[in-house]
Amino acid sequence: MRSRSPSLPSARPEAPISSASPSPGKPESDNVTSMEDRGILQDIGEEVICTLRAASYKLFRFHLHDWLALIALAVIYGILNSVINPFYRYVGSPIIQDYKYPLKPNTIPGLAVPVIAIGIPLVIFIIYFLYMKDITDLHHAILGLLFTVVISAVITEAIKNALGWPRPNFFWRCFPDGIERYNNDTFEVQCTGEQSVIKEGHKSFPSGHTSGSFAGLGFLSLYLAGKLQMFDRRGHVAKLIIVVLPLIGALLVGLSRVDDYWHHWNDVFGGAILGLTMAILCYHHFFPSVFSDKSTGPHSYLQIGNNFKLSCCSWVPRRRQHSDRPPAGNGRCILFFVFAGQEMVVQ
Questions:
Q1: Is 202 a catalytic residue?
Q2: Where does this polypeptide localize (predicted)?
């Protein structure tokens, strides 16, 4: 009879002895793998803890100069809006009739614009983060959104001050009592209204409500288009509807400015172009093109390589499986590296 050859020792490192008995309903291989994973984590000890705070702090330090630049831009906007007066463009008796539209209250108050442009996208970003646990994506989305809105606000306010274009309701800002007064020599208006109201009346072009709304909601549309991979050529209309909805909201904000007689139609058109341009530029500064097949994650993932993905151990699914999901945060933690189908654990 042919004798059996002796069994060779396994090349796999022995798993630490665990007191837990195999589960009766599961295959033995699954139980062995589970015990090996538990043994690895026990050997690692406290290093396996990867908190959101650690990952967030590392990202914040790496992008500290970006946050400082954002604060500087916000200060510049405050100066342009509150300190610097706009150019008081000539308004004479021959053209004052074009600015006699009624002075109505805002349908959408000015304080509602940050809620629309920043608050709504933030809610979407946080929901995506709670689902994917991707701190890097959340950080880049927030930073890109804030840069989009703040840069748009700075450019909008600078143009407003430089041009000093009168609003459609300028007449009632200048003459609240309805009595017209002009310079005898130049026929220029001599306003009797409040200085702050008159100052605001020379800030027609471009529309700040419109530029801010298209900046924030335009960034959100691009973000959704990238995450949903809208241009995957599969023809899913639902993706298109989701991506277009924020733009419709921004458009409604712009149309309300015309209906309230606070802006001319070209003010709204210019604000929309400005906001969308900033959204496109800032989005592609942090994320790949929405037409790319790698549009689901920030640019920082692509720097690692196409076949090289990492994710924080505390955010890996319960059963570690190969996935096309973008990597999560890169804080101080144990990282599961997946390279060419091989998996290993390193610190």
A1: no
A2: Membrane
- Scan for tokens 């605001």, then name that residue: 200
Which residues are CB-neighbours of 245 under 8 A, at least 6 positions away? none
Residue 218 tokens read as 């335009």
Instruction: Give, as one character, the DSSP assignment of residue 51.
Output: -
pLDDT at residue 308 in the model? 35
The residues spanned by each domain of the chain are: 81-286
Distance CA 216, CA 118 (A): 6
Would you call 63 a catalytic residue per the annotation? no
Instruction: State the helix-helix crossing angle for 208-228 and 120-132, rounded to 10 degrees.
Output: 20
Residue tagged active-site, from 63, 263, 284, 322: 263
Which two tokens mark 317?
A: 């699914």
> Given this model, what pLDDT does residue 76 score?
97
Q: How far apart are the first and last CA of the chain?
A: 52
- At residue 78, does pLDDT exceed 80? yes
> Does an H or E element contain 87, and which?
none
**Closest-CA residue to 251 (of 261, 230, 238, 265):** 265
Contact of 202 with 164, CB cutoff 8 Å: yes
Residue 278 vs residue 343, higher pLDDT: 278
pLDDT at 116 over 60: yes
Q: Is the pLDDT of residue 8 over 70?
A: no
Please identify which of the residues 139, 202, 209, 264 carries the catalytic annotation. Answer: 209
CA distances (Å), origin 56, targets 136, 200, 285: 8, 40, 20
Q: What is the mean predicted confidence (pLDDT) over 56-79?
A: 90
Q: Please report, as a single letter, which amino acid is at residue 133.
A: K
d(CA 83, CA 143): 27
Tens of pLDDT, residues 276-309: 999 999 999 999 998 888 888 787 665 544 333 3
Using DSSP bridges, classify how beta strands 308-312 and 335-339 pair: parallel, antiparallel or unpaired. antiparallel
Sequence-distant (≥ 6) Cβ neighbours of residue 198 within 8 angstroms: 173, 174, 191
Residue 5 structure tokens = 């050859």
Q: Is the pLDDT of residue 20 over 80?
A: no
